[in-house]
Amino acid sequence: MHPNQTFRRTDKGLALSFARDRTFGTLAVSTQGTPLISHVPFLLAEDGATADLHLVRSNPIARVCGNATPVTLAVTGPDAYISPDWYGIDDQVPTWNYVAVHLVGMLRPLPVDDLPDLLARQSAAYEARLPGKAPWTMDKMSAETTAKFLRIILPFRLEIVKVQSTYKLGQNKDDSARQAAADMVETGLGSELGHLARLMRHPPDAE
């Protein structure tokens, strides 16, 4: 997380809402060597206390998480390069604005018998967000495919003990400079530029 507390004033509930809506993140586990990293979809509980996910059995994280293991699930949002020229004031430096939420806690394996329910809940949640489409359900797979599918993956639950967030949106600039930069973001470099521009115009921690 960014060390400047100006960018870390976002309400925990808003950060959790962002992560729940995003529903995809980067799972990181510390090891004696290079950290283990995997990119995973997840389901965040309504109370924000847990996140359910699954991993392929051959995933190195699945192999080291036989018991409760400390992990971080990083959920990233829109981002963009900010040119100093956009502020309309002198003596500025380049930077990068972005949104990120870290869910920190203990990853625990769930009973294998929980896997069908977890997969059904995940697919139902994601399918429900596809407009104008009849939801796909697991019963559309053959028994052979289902059995193979269930053999190669494992269910896990992240018990969340800490929620960290960075909403770096130019809050350290005066309002006119931040708004001027927001007006230019969509012409620049990054991802989801329109979303970031809207957040820069109305930083959530400023409301």
Using the CA coordinates, give the radius of gyration. Answer: 20 Å
Enumerate the spans where pLDDT stays under 50 for 5 or more consecutive residues.
none
* Biggest pleated-sheet summary: 8 strands, antiparallel
Number of strands: 8
- Helical content stands at 25-40%
Cα shape: elongated
Secondary-structure element string: HEEEEHEEHHEHEH
Structural class estimated from helices and strands: alpha+beta
**How many DSSP helices?**
6
Q: N-to-C terminal Cα separation, in Å?
A: 21 Å
In short:
The chain is of the alpha+beta class and 207 residues long. The chain contains six helices and eight strands.
Task: Give an overview of the whole structure.
α5 (175-185) runs antiparallel to α6 (193-201). Helices cover 28% and strands 33% of the residues. It is elongated, with a radius of gyration of 20 Å. The protein is built from 6 helices and 8 strands. The longest helix has 13 residues, at 115-127. A hairpin with a 5-residue loop joins β3 (43-44) and β4 (50-56). It is of the alpha+beta class and 207 residues long. Strands 1, 2, 3, 4, 5, 6, 7 and 8 form an 8-stranded antiparallel β-sheet that branches.
